[in-house]
Amino acid sequence: MPLLERIKKLASDYASEVVKMRRHLHAHPELSYQEFETAAYITRQLSELGLAPRPMATTGVIAEIKGKNPERKTIALRADIDALPIQETNNVAYKSTKPGIMHACGHDVHTSSLLGTARILSMLTDQFEGTVRLIFQPGEEKHPGGASLLIKEGALKNPVPASIIGQHVFPLLPVGKVGFRTGKYMASSDEIYLKVIGKGGHGAAPELAIDPVVIASHIIIALQQIISRHASPKNPSVLTFGRVQANGATNIIPDEVTMAGTFRTLNEGWRQEALKKIKSMAAALAEGMGGHCEVTISNGYPYLENNDELTERIRQAAEAYVGKENTVDLDITMGSEDFAYYSQVIPASFYRLGTRNEARGITSYVHTPTFDIDEEALALGPGLMAWMAVKELGS
């Protein structure tokens, strides 16, 4: 039997088990850097395959599947394992059992899919040369990003993988389809925290106060000029403030206002320049209005670059697996992913697995309390990644 057909058969044989694993993980989500039960579950599953999983970055798990001539070449496959602080509202048998915690970004899918890929590849070690490194990564949803911790601890060393591939659910794409993009794909992500300090007072006597609400309002509007008048229109940038807290009242001017937002772009040079401008403009504007502004910037993930050659190779593999008509082009997105850290070190490619089914009402976007997937995606994802892996090892 040709290798492609054998992988498809194994994927079909294991599909129900992969769904079972996904439902277990979905029902038992854990927040970033707290994935102890999840890591133990992954370790048990890998051990049952005869692999030797080892912990990394506390709740991360690394394992390797060795084919013939394992030193010839190493590639890496990555899945993230953490959940989000969201209360699930789906009425499903596998609903989260943990109040206020939910797999609302599909990391249960990524983890179970990679476990399925591990099962398939473990049955094919006589069919490929080289080594596949499995990376089950914690903390994708929270700074500093588990990818950065794994890299520091050596996940991409001894030896350095020739490439790394990541898969992510995509609820805008129908189940059965897979999306790719070469080059710049996802934005960097930095968190901006501002504290505007003024002088509180009575709302009827503003001349005796220094109103931080007015100052904060001017800062929010003024900072948008950094995007509209300093960034090149050819360089996508976003600055959004989603939280503003004054804690005054109808007739009370507060002493301070706090704000929190995000800055995103796809150019590292402009990223650093813009962050400096945000800091200096906010401080100068507050001073000019008689107040003071403390600026704290939490540097997040870099932008994600999909290696052109690698992405083209795995796209061709996907076309062979699902048909050219089921592979689609993706647009850039201002969303961010800590997979970007890997893309700054070795050739990397991050592709999308369709999970949408409008006929069944499965349409909710990620990070929402109603997010779910058409589990037919789990009949596709594990085998597709296994096929990509063996093709990449042979390239």
Q: Can you put this structure into words, describing what you see?
A:
The protein folds into two domains: 3-185 and 302-393, Aminopeptidase (3-Layer(aba) Sandwich), CATH 3.40.630.10; 190-298, Alpha-Beta Plaits (2-Layer Sandwich), CATH 3.30.70.360. The chain has nine helices and 16 strands. The protein has helices spanning 3-27, 36-48, 107-122, 146-152, 212-229, 268-288, 308-322, 340-343, 377-393, and strands at residues 54-56, 60-66, 74-80, 131-137, 164-174, 178-180, 183-186, 190-197, 201-202, 237-245, 252-253, 256-265, 292-298, 304-306, 327-329, 348-356. Helix 3 (107-122) crosses helix 9. The protein is elongated, with a radius of gyration of 24 Å. It starts with a helix and ends with a helix. The model has no long low-confidence stretch (mean pLDDT 97).
Give the beta-strand count. Answer: 16
Helix fraction, binned, reads 25-40%
Predict the CATH topology of the largest domain.
Aminopeptidase
Low-confidence stretches: none
Strand neighbour order, sheet with most strands: 1-2-4-3-5-16-6-15
Tell me, briefly, the overall form. elongated
- Beta-strand level of the residues, as a percent range? 15-25%
Helical stretch tally: 9
The overall pLDDT average reads 97
Give the topology.
Layout: H1 3-27, H2 36-48, E1 54-56, E2 60-66, E3 74-80, H3 107-122, E4 131-137, H4 146-152, E5 164-174, E6 178-180, E7 183-186, E8 190-197, E9 201-202, H5 212-229, E10 237-245, E11 252-253, E12 256-265, H6 268-288, E13 292-298, E14 304-306, H7 308-322, E15 327-329, H8 340-343, E16 348-356, H9 377-393
Parallel strand pairs: 3-4, 3-5, 5-16, 6-15
Antiparallel strand pairs: 1-2, 2-4, 6-16, 7-14, 8-12, 8-13, 9-11, 10-12
